[in-house]
Amino acid sequence: MDFRDKQAIYLQIAEYVSEQILLGRWPVGEKIPSVRELAAELEVNPNTVMRTYEFLSQLEVIANKRGIGYFSADDALDKIRSFRREQFLQNDLPQFFKNLTLLGISLREIETRYDEYVNATTNAQ
């Protein structure tokens, strides 16, 4: 995993974990990798992964079952989408709009390209 400088590593790992759940690679309600397993896989300190898991636990995306490990919550998909949607709307969208304005790109062009993207990804599946 390549980490970006502008965001805390534990938050980047949280995005990775969330993505694995959204993609179904780590099924809802199932056990996820242990702190040590994920730390080894991502080549980070286990304390960083622990911080990630605590953060995701606070969001109720994952839950710790004592002595067994961490599991994705039954409603993890909804929790992840809700959190990431809010983050996108607050943080990414204003920058996106700024770039559209600076570059003179219309919403109509964005809509056309979005439709092309959706069609391409739908046909690829």
From TrEMBL:
InterPro entries: Tscrpt_reg_HTH_GntR, WH-like_DNA-bd_sf, WH_DNA-bd_sf. GO terms for molecular function: DNA binding; DNA-binding transcription factor activity. It comes from the Bacteria. It holds the Pfam family GntR. The keyword Transcription applies. Residues 7-75 form the HTH gntR-type domain. PROSITE patterns: HTH_GNTR (PS50949). Keywords: DNA-binding, Transcription, Transcription regulation. The keyword Transcription applies. This is GntR family transcriptional regulator. It comes from Spirosoma foliorum.
